[in-house]
Each structure stands twice: as C-alpha cells, then as structure tokens.
Amino acid sequence: MAVYTEVSDAELASFIASYGLGELLSFKGIAEGVENTNYIVHTSTGPFILTIYEKRVEVSDLPFYLGLMEHLAENGVTCPTPVRNAEGENLSQLSGRPAALVTFLEGFWVRQPTAAHCGHVGRALAEMHRGGEGFAIRRANALGLNGWRPLYDKFAPDANGIVPDLAPLIEGELDYLEANWPRGLPEGVIHADLFPDNVFFIGDELSGLIDFYFACNDALAYDIAVCLNAWCFEKDGAFNITKGRALLRGYESVRPLTDAERTAMPTLARGAATRFLLTRAYDWLNTPKDALVSPKNPMEYVRKLRFHQGVSSIAEYGLGDSAQ
Amino acid sequence: MAVYTEVSDAELASFIASYGLGELLSFKGIAEGVENTNYIVHTSTGPFILTIYEKRVEVSDLPFYLGLMEHLAENGVTCPTPVRNAEGENLSQLSGRPAALVTFLEGFWVRQPTAAHCGHVGRALAEMHRGGEGFAIRRANALGLNGWRPLYDKFAPDANGIVPDLAPLIEGELDYLEANWPRGLPEGVIHADLFPDNVFFIGDELSGLIDFYFACNDALAYDIAVCLNAWCFEKDGAFNITKGRALLRGYESVRPLTDAERTAMPTLARGAATRFLLTRAYDWLNTPKDALVSPKNPMEYVRKLRFHQGVSSIAEYGLGDSAQ
C-alpha cells in the first residue's frame, strides 16, 4: 500500500509512447501492492497497470513472472497480460527501476468468500495448472520444503516469544514433514499464493487471477493445499467442509486428482500451513514497529496447522467419494 | 496519500447500484489525497472517482463543494462532476462516512510547468471565475485576511525555531496587510488552491481543474495572486516574469482586470504568500514525525514573501502594458 517510486510526467509519457498504445491520458498511483509500485494508466486505447519493481523482487525472476503471464494468457487463463514495447520487450526500465506494463484486469477480490466462490477458485486453479503446461522457464520454490527449516532457523530463539510453545510445534512439524513429504506427485507451474486478494470476481463470476510473484515449479496438489488454507476456514478458525468440497470439486471438474494426490492432501495441507506460519512468524518479529503495513498475526496459521494435524484423509476436506 | 476507510465489496456494490451507472467492474484505492480516501471505480458505463470524506473535511461544507463542481460543469468548466443517485442526491454515505461519486477527469498534473502551461492556467482560472457566477451557496474564506493572525497566534512562540527572525517577518507583514488590504475588489467564487497538482493537462492542453476543497467567496484577483506564487517561481526561488506575463495575459484573455485589481496585485501577492507561509509553518510544527505525509518546508514561502515585499507594481509580474 504505497508508491515507492515517483515518476515524472515526461518520463512516463515517453515510456508509454514506446508501447504504441496511443496517447497517455492519466496515471494514478494505487494503494495496493506491498512489494512494488503500481499505477493505473489510461491511454487512448484503454486502461493498463504499470508496475515498477522495487528492491524486494529479484530482477532475475522477472522473465519467469512476465513470461508466465503471457503464456497463461495465450492458453486461455484470464490474468493481467504483459504488453510488449516497440523493441518487443515485456520488461523495460523507468526511473532507473525495472518496469512492466500489463493489461488492466477488471474485477475485485471478495472479502467474504462463499462456497460458490471456492468452487470457481478450484476450477480456475486447475485451469491455471493446465495453462502452465509447456512454459519453458523454470523457477524453484524458494518457500518449499527445503526452504522451511532455514527460514525457521532465522527466528527459532524468539519463536516462543510470539506464541507459547511455538518452537516445539514448528520443530515437531518440520521433522514430520521432512520424513513424510510426498514425492513423485504431478508437478507443474503453481501460483503458490492464491489467496482471496489474488482472485478477481465481477458479480458471481471469476474474472481472473493476479499476482504471480510467488509462482514456481512444484507439486500441483500443493497449490490446492494452499487454497484450502486460504479459502476454506472461517474467521473463528473452523474449517468449512462445504467450501472445501466446492473447491476440490471445482478443481476436479478440470483436472481430476490422482490417488497419490488424494492420499497426500493432509500432509500437503500441513506443509502449506507451515509455510505461511513460518513467513508470518518471521515477519511478525522482523517488521519495524513504524512500518506502513502491519504484519499478519501468525496465530491464525497455528490454528490451521493444528487442524490439519488431526486430519487423516481428504474426505475431511470434503472430497468423500470420487464418484460423486 | 492514503486509504483511510476500507470499504467492502458488498457495501460498494450496493452504493454503486444506487447510481444506475451499470455494473461495478473494479475499484482500487489511489495514493492521492491527503485529506480524503479516494477510489478509482470502473463501472460498465465508465470510470469514476469515489471520495470518502474523512474527519478533516467539514461535512457542512460538502454541499458547497459538490454544488460548485456541478455549477461549474453546467457552465462549461471542465472538472470532476458529481453524479446524483436515484434519490437525486450528490452526497451519500458509505461505511458510515459522507461519500460522493464524481466523473473521472483524464489528464495529469505537470511537474515542471512552462510559460505555456501558465498561460493555460490563467485562462482556465478566469473561466472558472466566470463559471462560478450565479452559484447560490456562499462560503467564507477561512484562510483569508481575518484568519491569518489567529492562525499565527497558534504557533507564534515557536516561529523563530523554524527560521531565525520568522516571528518579526510575519508580525510586520500581518500589520502591513491589515492596514493595506484592498477593499471593494470584484468578488466571486475562487479556487484558492490552484497549485500545479490541481490542474490536469493532456499533452499541452489543459484538461480540467480539480480539488475545490478550499474554494470560497473572496476577491477574484486574490486567486490570481495565489497562482502567481504557485506557478511562476523557479526552484531556485527566482520569479519568472515570462511565466507571470503568460499567466496574467491568459487570465485577461477571458476577464480583463480592473485598474483597482492591477494596483492591488503586489499586496494580494504578499497576502497569498503569507497565507501559505502560515499554514506551512503551522504544519511544520504540528505534523507528527511519523506521519505518512511530510510537511512542506515553509522557507519557500519566506523567500516568495520577501520577493513580493520588493514589488511595487503589477508590471514586475509581467503585465507592463495593458494595450499589449
């Protein structure tokens, strides 16, 4: 929620001119995006989003993110689509920072998702997994299994200061996940962060997916596990099995799960909860008190992790009978 | 540069529906406006700006501001124009705060104005003065002559802590202005804050005026004096007479000044410099160190005031010969 890089009208006009999108009509910094600076740009041919990449984004990853959005759009997935400039580049420079122009995606994220929304999200996730097939660039999941223990080690001595007994909870869970993590599941490009604020709707219809800046190659079913965590719990901490069922059935309407994926789901969900618990705990301890953006409370993911620890089968997430 | 009031999708959808502007397609908080929360709203009939009025705005003044924008638009002045809802109201409520929807004005403000821009601004200011004729609601200028000494009294003991000898400079100037303020000049609705960030251009053409939240009834020529201060000084503090000439001639191309207005211009310019010096000095002392928006340095207006103190005729602002 900030504009880190201020651009001048002359710089921006010349930047926009390089895209051949007509005359620059207006640009306004938008209060979204913690990591980057975003402007809504109107030209005589339509609205666009200009993103200026700030220091938290690895420049070497930008060809993956931008290339993926183009690849997905070409394969029928609705998402902001990079525009190429006169030199044929989808990545350029503005005010000395890497910058890209993407199409404006109409829609807005849903603050209180219903089971119907969850069904749409499951379907869109599977369509994204299909749409990502054949994408040539690869990116490892820096926040996958191998990244969790090193991240925990950074704040382990302070963990119990956040929540009593957080250290033994995380340490026991990392031991479990390292010993039981499923291998050999179908892999592909995953979104890895498909929370409600990254899915746009217009009315009851899903209008597209945004924010591919955690996308990477990993087990496809892990992406479903992230969504079960992000979409299917109520504010009071209870898992809503109606939403879980809708999400899983929505997914399977496009891409049925393998038996191995179904069996692995409780472990994948534990891993996904651990991943967000770890980053939230780290941010909780390391965000300056005067920062513009308050860190999210890690407690929410402690509760989710404990729920998944008690789950023994995908039926408890709502997918009881594959023939249904 | 902030979003103070977060609205939910359901609230906003129902708010937008009350205007009959088609379906809500998207809304994004914009990082503009220190005093209010602003969203860009796209509906199926076009883009709009939604403003939620925060506590610094007097609710009782809103009918003046919104009515003025409607009146000006009806009289050919291009500015954001309030939309009326199904009840015929241009002022409504959202998330418990007063809120209004206005048309989206394309264009963007010019960071480095040229003399040509100053000419357009002068012309647009005069057109606004003409367009404001006949507007029925009145609003006194809270930051006019009668408001300056009470504002100074709030920080007088600390004034010299900002700039050495600021207290005697302001006190002497207030004595001068109270004794010499011109009376009986043509009055009307003035913008009172027509700085570069409140004037939009597309290419070299002025596309409209925004931000009427200081507008009030006062001497029309005082509005020109504000613009001379805001548009015609260079970053090094020098007055640019070419820009002054362009601004004054632009103004006179629509509404020629009276002899009394010409004679009064140096005193009006001193008053305008004092007004912005006072508010900047007050904000300099009273803005919390951790505020999102840094206060503007009052020193700029000390220099401008000293310049005007040495001016004896409107010729020194560029209007040497009325026959030119």
From TrEMBL, chains A, B:
Catalytic reaction(s) noted: L-homoserine + ATP = O-phospho-L-homoserine + ADP + H(+)
Superkingdom in the source lineage: Bacteria
Pathway: Amino-acid biosynthesis; L-threonine biosynthesis; L-threonine from L-aspartate: step 4/5
GO process terms (BP): threonine biosynthetic process
One of the record's GO molecular function terms: ATP binding
Keyword Transferase included in the entry's annotation: yes
Keyword flag Transcription regulation: no
Entries under PANTHER family matching the protein: AMINOGLYCOSIDE PHOSPHOTRANSFERASE DOMAIN-CONTAINING PROTEIN, AMINOGLYCOSIDE PHOSPHOTRANSFERASE DOMAIN-CONTAINING PROTEIN-RELATED
Protein name listed in UniProt: Homoserine kinase
Organism from which the protein derives: Hyphomicrobium sulfonivorans
